[in-house]
Amino acid sequence: MICIFACLVVPLAGVEDASARIIANKFAFSLAYLYLCTVMAVKLSVIIPVYCVEATLERCLQSVVGQTFRDIEVILVDDGSPDGCPQLCDEWAVRDSRISVIHQRNRGLSAARNAGLDAAQGEWVTFADSDDFLDTDTYAQLMAQADDCDLLEYPFYWHYGSAEQQQRLTTAETYDDADDYWLRGHAYEHTYAWNKLYRRTLFSEVRFPEGKVFEDAWVLPRLLSKVRRIRSAAKGCYYYCQNPQGITARADGRELAMLLEAHRLTLSRWCDDRYYMHVLNIQLDVSRLTGAPPTLPRRHISVFGPALTARQRLKALLLNLIGIDRLCNIYLLRH
To answer: How much is the pTM?
Structure first.
């Protein structure tokens, strides 16, 4: 770096005109700065929103900074946490130079992730929730497969530590078509932001929607419109720990309506019988919890199609016979 800077600046000493020398020096400094940014750029930015997680933050951060893949930056976004988390974040930044901290007033998960995206410098970006953790070799195994794709997803344990825990996405697959990934890969069942690595350029015009929950279901379809290749890896593991206070566990009708709205928009681009039945289940819950009439358009389902389970076939038969309004009413009466 010093040699390059000297090669650019030293010849300028002979420039007699002061204005020309100033302009030339500014140009030299700009080139040197661009070179420095290129050399110093990290490979992967890990964004971790932090809010009221004193009990689990240490475990999460140990699993991230302890990754065998070292070329990372860790961006902690303290979303106005009222407990000891802000101090814990600052202490970790002192302990590891790869960690930086953003303190902001409480604005929600989407705003925290967006703040991290605005600060990220990595070629790739990923997210972790501060009450979860990862296997130590996860990022190393994923980055080894990243060169020829734009998005990688990897296995995870769902509700780790509970009686319902199960491991998902354990089969390797590559998709050169976003439609294929969404429908054949059933991506709508795992839109989660935290078990994926993204080229940061995918977010150049995309941010998480503030004021909405189930934000992942809004964002992933927008990102998929920009990808060339998606890889589902069979290596690495993210541990999504059960949180009784999390939005998935305690979502009410208004919040589930936001999830329904996200999928209704996506249905206009991608739809098959299985995906429709997935969204129909959300519609049934929304109608049950709010009493509002269904907004999901009716679709005739091939009852004996190969993609449906026995339970879905029965529900599809009722849908075809009596329509979505009456099906929602029956669901409401049963619950």
So the answer is: 0.86
